[in-house]
Amino acid sequence: MSWSEVFVKDLDFHFAIEIIVRTLIMFALILIILRLTGKKGVRQLSIFEVAIIIGFGSAAGDPMFTKDIAIVPSVIVLVTILVLYRLVTWIATKSERFESVLEGEPMYIIEEGRFVLIDKAELTFAKDEFLSEMRQQSIEHLGQVRIAVLETTGNVSFYYYSDEEVKPGMPVLPKPYNLKSKTIGVEGDYACTYCGDVKYINSQTHKCERCGREEWVKAIVTKRLS
Predict the structure, then answer these.
(1) pLDDT surpasses 70 at 203
(2) Counting Cβ atoms within 10 Å, is residue 83 exposed (0-12), middle (13-18) or buried (19+)?
(3) What's the predicted TM-score (pTM) here?
(4) Where are the domains of the chain?
(5) What letter would DSSP give residue 200?
(6) Does the chain have fewer CB atoms within 10 Å around its N or its C terminus?
């Protein structure tokens, strides 16, 4: 194996300069095109907009370092994608049904301090990922949350109970959550680790009446830190 073939191959000085120029031009065009879409940040992107960004990257990437690909055809592709984006978003503003098909709909994840039972075919997020999102919002247990909605952008909107309304809930911090077990040692309030339903349990084993699971963790009732 020749290291020069791996790192340099047939690259010459003049084409290296051309790559720099091509990259600067295409990068500037990408910034301009993205600015024209009107988006302010990555966290606002929907699935459709992510597809648009991928299209931008594909159209702009090759001309940066490929001799046989000119810049103008790539500019045509970028402008076409921008026009398509503008057209589709305009149609979406006129038709809620079209927007729903294109972007999807918000999904309730938590209601009244418990996970909403969602069909596995509709499940679009990992539980560990969602618990991490809750911890980042200074949420210690489900009993602090009245409603949580997964938005079409991937963000989660939380609506909280007041301190007076907080009730026992499933802990989301790693240490107390990892104490989950199918065997109840001491009677008290326990939360189902699958659906978050809280019950007072005084038996060694207990099946959740809501989801049918048998794994429990000690519920906690701490107030939320603001």
Answers:
(1) yes
(2) exposed
(3) 0.68
(4) 3-101, 107-218
(5) E
(6) N
Tokens of 32: 């301009």
Which has more confidence, 68 or 109?
Answer: 109
Q: What is the pLDDT of residue 171?
A: 95
Q: What mean pLDDT, rounded, does the chain reach?
A: 84
Identify the DSSP state of 4: H
Q: Which of 107, 110, 106 is nearest to 137 (CA)?
A: 110
CA distance 210 to 200: 14
Q: How confident is the model at residue 100 (pLDDT cuts 50, 70, 90)?
A: confident
What tokens were used for 179? 């104490």
At 171, list the tokens.
Answer: 């802990």
CATH class of the structural domain 107-218: alpha beta
Spatial CA neighbour of 55 closest among 91, 79, 35, 89: 79
3-state secondary structure 35-99: HHHCCCCHHHCCHHHHHHHHHHHHHHHHHHHCCCCCHHHHHHHHHHHHHHHHHHHHHHHHCHHHH
Contacts for 200 with CB less than 8 Å, ≥ 6 apart:
187, 188, 189, 190
pLDDT of residue 138: 92
